[in-house]
């Protein structure tokens, strides 16, 4: 396998070298390339600047990528934390509402039973003797016997 990889690798490197040389030729034919060809000190200065600035630019790009990834992860974690806290708060509020509704329903039910009992007691139909004492009614003989005992 190593012998098979070498020819394809060298062929890829040759293609890359051809593309790079075509790029250099295209740059040298441009007005900037011709100006730098006439001023070798300036060309050397630009080359040194580009070479030396590659490391800081690379570090900055790495910093940007890392902070972006960390920001995305941080937002995801923070959002998860906020949603979790919000969900627990909602659960607690709903449990409280459930307990309050049970207590309120029980209070309303007891109040209804007590009020209906009082209303039935106060407005119940009373015997005629208690409502109109001037009217005399005759009791049945069985009831008189019970009343005497």
Jot down its keywords:
single chain, 149 residues, mainly alpha, rod-shaped
Question: Describe it for me?
Answer:
With 149 residues, the chain is mostly helical. The protein is built from five helices and no strands. The model has no long low-confidence stretch (mean pLDDT 85).
Question: How does the overall form come out from the CA principal axes?
Answer: rod-shaped
Strand content: under 5%
Q: How many helical elements?
A: 5
Spell the H/E element sequence.
HHHHH
Give the N-to-C terminal Cα separation: 125 Å
- Poorly predicted regions are none
What's the rounded overall pLDDT mean?
85
- What radius of gyration results from the CA coordinates? 50 Å
Number-wise, the strands total 0
Q: Residue share in helices?
A: over 70%
- Tell me the major beta sheet: none
Which structural class fits the helix and strand makeup? mainly alpha
Summarize the SSE layout with pairings:
Elements: H1 2-29, H2 31-38, H3 40-122, H4 128-131, H5 141-148
Q: Quick gist of this model?
A:
Helix content is 88%, strand content 0%. It is an all-alpha fold and 149 residues long.
């Amino acid at each position: 396998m190593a012998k098979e990889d070498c020819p394809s690798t060298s062929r890829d490197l040759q293609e890359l070298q051809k593309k790079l040389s075509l790029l250099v030729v295209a740059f040298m034919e441009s007005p900037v390339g011709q100006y730098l060809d006439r001023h070798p000190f300036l060309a050397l200065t630009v080359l040194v600047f580009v070479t030396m600035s590659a490391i800081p630019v690379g570090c900055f790009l790495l910093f940007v990528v890392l902070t972006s990834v960390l920001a995305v992860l941080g937002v995801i974690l923070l959002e998860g934390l906020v949603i979790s806290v919000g969900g627990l708060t909602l659960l607690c509020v709903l449990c409280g509402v459930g307990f309050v509704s049970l207590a309120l329903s029980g209070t309303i039910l007891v109040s209804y039973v007590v009020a209906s009992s009082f209303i039935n007691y106060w407005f119940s139909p009373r015997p005629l003797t208690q409502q109109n004492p001037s009217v005399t009614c005759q009791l049945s003989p069985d009831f008189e016997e019970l009343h005497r005992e």
